[in-house]
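Lab channel / #folding
Pinned by the channel admin:
"Please post every new chain as: sequence first, then the structure tokens as a reply. Keep commentary short and put observations after the output so the thread stays searchable."

First post following the new format, from NK:
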Amino acid sequence: MVQKGYRDVPYHNWSHAFAVGHFCYLLVRTAAVRNALTELERLSLFVACLCHDIDHRGTTNAFQLQSVGFQFLFF
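Reply from TO:
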């Protein structure tokens, strides 16, 4: 389940992912997007929106660079 991949951090959490997914759902229902993207592309976009911050640690890129982390490359 996608929700389990999200940490309990202040912003990049499941609530944020759900909000992004909801926006995506509303977006892909518009005629412009339906005509521009295939069904598979719309599904891929929706899944990407739900999963875009999985395992985000809640820190900034600057913090990751200073602590010689590598996760900043993914977010």
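NK: The two ends are 20 Å apart (CA to CA).
TO: also worth noting, The helical segments are 14-28, 31-36, 39-51, 61-66.
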